[in-house]
Amino acid sequence: MIIVLKREATQGEIDHIVKKVEQLGLRSMISRGVERTIIGVIGDEAIVRSQPLEVYPGVERVIPVLAPYKLASREYKKEDSVIPLSPTVSIGGRKIIMFAGPCSVESKELLMSVGRTVKEAGAEVLRGGAFKPRSSPYDFQGLGEEGLRYLREVADETGLLVVTELMDPRDTELVERYADVIQIGARNIQNFNLLKEVGNSKKPVFLKRGMMATVREFLLSAEYIISHGNPNVILCERGIRTFETATRFTLDLNAVPLIKRLSHLPVVVDPSHGTGKYNLVGPMAKAAVACGADGLMIEVHPNPEEAFSDGEQSLLPRKFKELMSELAPIAASVGRTI
Amino acid sequence: MIIVLKREATQGEIDHIVKKVEQLGLRSMISRGVERTIIGVIGDEAIVRSQPLEVYPGVERVIPVLAPYKLASREYKKEDSVIPLSPTVSIGGRKIIMFAGPCSVESKELLMSVGRTVKEAGAEVLRGGAFKPRSSPYDFQGLGEEGLRYLREVADETGLLVVTELMDPRDTELVERYADVIQIGARNIQNFNLLKEVGNSKKPVFLKRGMMATVREFLLSAEYIISHGNPNVILCERGIRTFETATRFTLDLNAVPLIKRLSHLPVVVDPSHGTGKYNLVGPMAKAAVACGADGLMIEVHPNPEEAFSDGEQSLLPRKFKELMSELAPIAASVGRTI
Amino acid sequence: MIIVLKREATQGEIDHIVKKVEQLGLRSMISRGVERTIIGVIGDEAIVRSQPLEVYPGVERVIPVLAPYKLASREYKKEDSVIPLSPTVSIGGRKIIMFAGPCSVESKELLMSVGRTVKEAGAEVLRGGAFKPRSSPYDFQGLGEEGLRYLREVADETGLLVVTELMDPRDTELVERYADVIQIGARNIQNFNLLKEVGNSKKPVFLKRGMMATVREFLLSAEYIISHGNPNVILCERGIRTFETATRFTLDLNAVPLIKRLSHLPVVVDPSHGTGKYNLVGPMAKAAVACGADGLMIEVHPNPEEAFSDGEQSLLPRKFKELMSELAPIAASVGRTI
Amino acid sequence: MIIVLKREATQGEIDHIVKKVEQLGLRSMISRGVERTIIGVIGDEAIVRSQPLEVYPGVERVIPVLAPYKLASREYKKEDSVIPLSPTVSIGGRKIIMFAGPCSVESKELLMSVGRTVKEAGAEVLRGGAFKPRSSPYDFQGLGEEGLRYLREVADETGLLVVTELMDPRDTELVERYADVIQIGARNIQNFNLLKEVGNSKKPVFLKRGMMATVREFLLSAEYIISHGNPNVILCERGIRTFETATRFTLDLNAVPLIKRLSHLPVVVDPSHGTGKYNLVGPMAKAAVACGADGLMIEVHPNPEEAFSDGEQSLLPRKFKELMSELAPIAASVGRTI
Lengths: 338, 338, 338, 338
Description:
The structure is a homotetramer. By secondary structure, chain A is α/β, with parallel strands linked by helices.
């Protein structure tokens, strides 16, 4: 932690700060420049971080030196985390993992038809929402437990795994019962009690970046989960909110190589939510693979005209198959399989 | 709802859309321009809104005509909502209501000292967090029920009311037991199950705008609460996230007069969180009153150097008193009291 | 300047950096913490700022300590700058200065009619664009020199001063001939050659914040002008671009008290462009005065239905008069006149 | 153009609008819905666009139907524009074109060394700034004409073409004399006089997206150039400004496939400026190729530690060569060469 003092800071003010630092069990080092004096605080930064040093008289600015997350950081763990989703499937290794399925679970028939196609095309995990976060109270809110049951049945019959969203801490056991991977949605990225809840789960967590979350906050939310005991966190970039309205969100692919440097956790990209437009899904999926994504989450629906939600960003099963074959050579170009 | 067709849309595609519209029990009206054909959909827009019309062949763009919220809209209710917080205090009328207190509840002594001062200075509601949403798992997370109890005791002794944050649907009854007004924090603006929960409560809800929520989404979240049975929603602008990093957030005062036109609900401004800097709190509080805010929420702490959270944006009790006296003539200038 | 090293930085890397710092004529001070070593660079920060120290082996991050602007800073000049616009009118003192008029100069008659009303209502400066920056090549581009002539004639007849935009360095002398204050528009905030040009002018400069400019960049653009010899810079907040689309821009009033702390220059607010909606102009004008603005720029048009540009954000002359009388008590509340 | 009326709009207000529309030589079509009446305006939308219809009594909202740009649109020209840069090199076809070189021209020796390497590695165009837009007046501002001369000499000797930035309309002839392609920088995206100037040039224009420009505004700026007579516009995505500060900008790759749908113009991606970090340049360059970019602009410097500007985002010549060989199979995967 570095404390930059105001130009006019007095010796009394400096002494006051140094004393406070010592009371916290830390050491300080004073450096007098031409225009400013700076105090370096040496010791565990976590201790100082929660102190409102900015309000001390004479202080102009406080600059943290370390990232506020530890367990999620590449510094803490040098090698990539490879997270098992089942005895045979894991993410974070050489193989790029595909999560595919409809936005919402609508009926068992539809889910089965999508499940069969995506499995055949090479997907490993079936996605589908049983609990749907919808910005309007008048929109379809999901089938609830019935939807979870369909997901499990279709996955078991087709040889897929299940990822589905948990929205409410009271549903944790229910979702755990049906899902292989628990998804935390973008709108719950800072629902800290929900993060603690899945931090206590044995199931891997699929954590979607909030539309307003910085990469730093995204990794802090992962830290919540890991620090509560669950190291199996998969990060998913799904678009941030910017001034641009021509796309639903701005899919931030920069986050992929950036997070791979800052953290050891696997990174998945969701170009369906990230762009909101089915005809941008293919190009952005390719781009995601090219820049190092460990997986993709893609919405597939046999009849987008009739989808209960997000029809405008879903691929037809046929288009999903085509995309899979187009992704293979790009994956190979960056030393991966798909 | 207006459907703009692609230049090259065929008659068959137009017929297909018209048929779909009729199946939904609505009427359509076709208008052929020089460069585009447009289909106006007449009838209940809520029915069409959830249809993914954008994926229909021939469709270029779908434009909703009405706002997606109803009960929260000024159109639904012309006159300002005046919301009772207690038998003697209400918000939305001529008097500007002050919500003041520390960021977190830290101890009963401290809370009592702050409570006494803010009451004396003219505040009606004591704020203080018992459950704290903190972006780092290593930061102070609040005193929980103990904090709620202190809030109630201090409020009762000083003649204040209590507003405090509910973060978890499992704590609803607990918070209701102690609080007069239930706060939903910015990070939970789209925690829809929590919104439904307080929609079933008898207590007024203090809903903070998410740092990434558009005014439209903010009003949709209010709609969730109202449509579940609780009409007593107080909206609070507390800063949005922008590219500017010199302030913690960008307090968006434009939202005050804008929401007053779009909705009948009262609007409070929180310049403490909105700016993150104690020396900007005063000027922005004045500006909020000048542009029509119905209330202010302000953080007050007797010793910001020792605050457990947000010390850098808290006012000293003495400064809060000064601010109150500076606000009075501005309130008078816009026909209000404080 | 503070250089934070990577955890694994070697002694050789540290020596390499220290040597570089010494070659620049500066001193370095090494501070070894538990997790990181930090090098403080002592001496003129401007020298180090342009060095790409981030690419040196072993370096994790480089943190500047000082603001990159000097002449524009409050540290350089403690007291408020009071800038003379004419022998009798100046800005930055107790009196709040009003800049009012139509968006574009359309005809002499119209300008005269607006000029008379705003003068009568208490405005000091007539605004109006002769050269218009329009995002579409098919929109009205301004009357050019004819417009400048009308501005001068109306100002002289009514006793107002003239502020008008300079868009092209080739027009500098022309605009100087007619205007009392030269406006640099938001889209030219980083048109550095234009900034240098007005830095050589004897006329005061009215510099509008770019819709994407941070406060730091805004002050750096002012620094360009001052460092080229013209200290008379008036800063104007006119709305930034954010994710919110309900208003044309997000008028950032936080910038007013923030800039007043960081800089000695006067700050004007333009709620017409900042909100893009005539019914938000009044409330935001009041808020601007309440939070410390030194002036306001407001668009006035007698017949917004027929305006060549920005009709939707113009006030009727009658409404402008009303606003002036509503602003007076707010100005008085903050110790100002208008 | 669609005009949505207020719920309470009167027949008199409707008649007033219809009359105005007819005076403009257009037709209107009234559609009365359950909650709103809508007026469709039929005829040339450009005529209505500049009318401030929003201020007419009874009007709630005005919605344009068509994009405001024409000549730049895919609708105007179905097939991709292939733009000749020289008799033998063109962009927009099957071959992906590489623009590479240092940020600034610093010396002839350095430029020659970079030029030789990038040519050898497969680049077609040498980049380098002779006039530098720098946010601080105290930073290196470029070598001016001397820099232009070096660019030309190195290009001629190595068999490359030259792209370089024009910042000032007064330098147009000078830059045209030395450059094959004229660059308009991000900060000048709405410097409309400069756009008109290059609209009159015979040389192709390399137009960089502003950090705050929507795709719509970006295409409108291209429209300025084309409508003044120069159809040879190359668009360059180089990062937008968002709330994320971990990268210098947020490179918006979504814009690539989106613009390819909306426009016939070629799209280049600049991952050096777009990310501001040399270790993200490679992954994002690969992603750009994968999602359909027609070219890449990449900063290369033999000694980033000594670069006069942007050293932290420059690749070493050796790394540029490696990248070129890594890009080749990705280009092949999407049916392109490089």
